[in-house]
Design a protein that fits this description.
Radius of gyration: 25 Å
CATH topology of the largest domain: FAD/NAD(P)-binding domain
CATH architecture of the largest domain: 3-Layer(bba) Sandwich
CATH class of the largest domain: Alpha Beta
Number of strands: 19
Strand content: 15-25%
Distance between the termini: 15 Å
Strand order of the largest sheet: 12-15-14-13-16-17
Shape: elongated
Largest sheet: 6 strands, antiparallel, barrel
CATH superfamily of the largest domain: FAD/NAD(P)-binding domain
Bound molecules: flavin-adenine dinucleotide
């Protein structure tokens, strides 16, 4: 507990901002947290709907590597508050976690709401004052020196607030209806803070139509199969540098393309390759990754008798439903009846991805505040007293619990950074 309590403002009540607020309040400072939305943690609650993947249990070197270009930067933060610390922290809130079959870590109850409820109780007990429906709209003097005097808008009108330190934890730029709308980008840019443009990460992609002259599946395929999963397939891509990537998993057919975990896992190199080339990227689907081409060709070449092609495909290659539909969508009829060619297409079906889906639909965003703008305390080097954390920083990671862990770790570091800086 500090003998010298100071006033700190946190803007943004997602996992990063709440974590920063907790660290600062537990050190004895007075914390006011402002959020634009009627309640805090809305994206966190959404993340809990399909099962809150809090973190991952894989060994630290593998875990850290998931942050790609930001791995070295994130590594020190994860040493201080990584996967194990996060599980222990959740446990102290009464939320037990378990490791799923894929190594992902979930709360036993799977949801985010019980954790958020318990956390908000603890924050209130630590005297954190939460002000929902308070939107930060920039600094009091846009061209002045201070970045700790804030302009806000609340239902009762405009107000200004200043503090000894300010933490911004404003999120990325997706799912803007939950609060993170990226509106802060120009305000930080005006202060000379280097920013990378916000881009979709962990996102779906629109597909080039089979005829190649438009976007989206044919009407029949879209009507029949949109919403269905392509299970146990592999996707191979060549990235912008010509390096090959291959992943096995499952993805979802959407009205205009593909999304889901397998696509998200490859979304960053796909997005970058499309951007670098300025044109669609060809990807290859292996609809039967467990079976070598020769064995598949041999199986399909066995006499078909009076069986229809669909039945033959099903009995000899286990291919039916959406996978068979995909073949019919992209393989011309004459090639469908040539078993050698058909087997080759099952093992390597070329599709072209035209563009990422709009940023607002993405699970997370890349881009934001450049990491080298921050010092070891997560303080903006050129604006002492201003700290940033969470998804608004320029790092990205795949799904698997790495996003939340990164937000908690940076929020934790920013909170401790404020305490350390105020004690200087
Ligand atoms: C559908 C979905 C599922 C997901 N599932 C998972 C998962 O299982 N595991 C995982 O690791 N990650 C998951 N994520 C990602 C994860 O939820 C985010 O990375 C994380 O919430 C980001 O935390 P944050 O605190 O940086 O920002 P946010 O959670 O976005 O919070 C930012 C806050 O800032 C507020 N704010 C923004 N601008 C202003 C302003 N001007 N004034 C005042 N307040 C403002 C917003 O209202 C918001 O409350 C999922 C995301 C989505 C969309």
């Amino acid at each position: 507990m500090t003998p010298n309590p100071r006033n700190v403002i946190v803007v943004g009540g997602g996992p990063a901002g709440l974590m920063a607020a907790e660290r600062i309040a537990l050190a004895g400072h007075r914390v006011e947290l402002f959020d634009a939305m009627p309640s805090v943690g809305r994206k966190f609650l959404l993340a809990g709907i399909g099962g809150l993947n809090l973190t991952h249990s894989e060994p630290a070197p593998k875990f850290v590597a998931r942050y790609g270009e930001a791995a070295a930067w994130m590594s020190g933060l994860l040493d201080r508050f990584g996967a194990e610390a996060l599980r222990q922290w959740a446990g102290e809130l009464g939320i037990d976690t378990f490791v799923g079959s894929s190594g992902r870590v979930f709360p036993v109850e799977m949801k985010a709401a019980p954790l958020l409820r318990a956390w908000l109780q603890r924050l209130r007990a630590a005297q954190v004052r939460i002000h929902p429906r308070h939107r930060w709209t920039g600094w009091v003097s846009p061209h002045g020196k201070a970045t700790t005097d804030l302009r806000l808008v609340s239902p009762s009108g405009a107000l200004t607030r200043s503090a000894d330190a300010v933490v911004l934890a404003l999120g990325g730029g997706s799912w803007s209806r939950l609060g993170s709308d990226g509106a802060w980008m120009p305000w930080l840019a005006d202060r000379g803070i280097a920013l990378a443009p916000l881009r979709p990460a962990n996102c779906g992609f629109d597909i080039c139509s089979p005829s190649g002259d438009g976007i989206g599946w044919g009407d029949y395929f879209a009507n029949r199969f949109a919403g269905q999963a392509l299970k146990n397939i592999a996707i191979r891509i060549k990235d912008a540098d010509g390096d090959r990537h291959e992943r096995v998993g499952e993805c979802l057919v959407t009205v205009a393309g593909l999304e889901g975990s397998l696509i998200y896992a490859l979304a960053a190199p796909i997005r970058d390759a499309i951007e670098a080339a300025g044109s669609p990227l060809e990807i290859r689907l292996d609809l039967f990754p467990g079976r070598p081409l020769a064995a598949l060709t041999e199986a399909l070449s066995q006499p078909r008798g009076r069986r229809s092609l669909s039945n033959h495909l099903h009995s000899k290659a286990g291919i039916s439903g959406v996978k068979a539909g995909l073949l019919r969508e992209f393989v011309p009829p004459e090639e469908m009846n040539d078993m050698r060619t058909l087997a080759a297409k099952i093992k390597s079906l070329p599709l072209r991805l035209a563009r990422p889906r709009p940023i607002d639909e993405a699970i997370s965003t890349a881009g934001g505040v450049a990491l080298d703008e921050l010092d070891h305390r997560m303080m903006v080097k050129r604006w002492p007293g201003l700290f940033c954390c969470g998804e608004m920083l320029d790092w990205e990671a795949p799904t698997g619990g790495y996003l939340l862990t990164g937000c908690f770790a940076t929020g934790h570091a920013a909170g401790d950074g404020v305490v350390d800086w105020l004690a200087r």
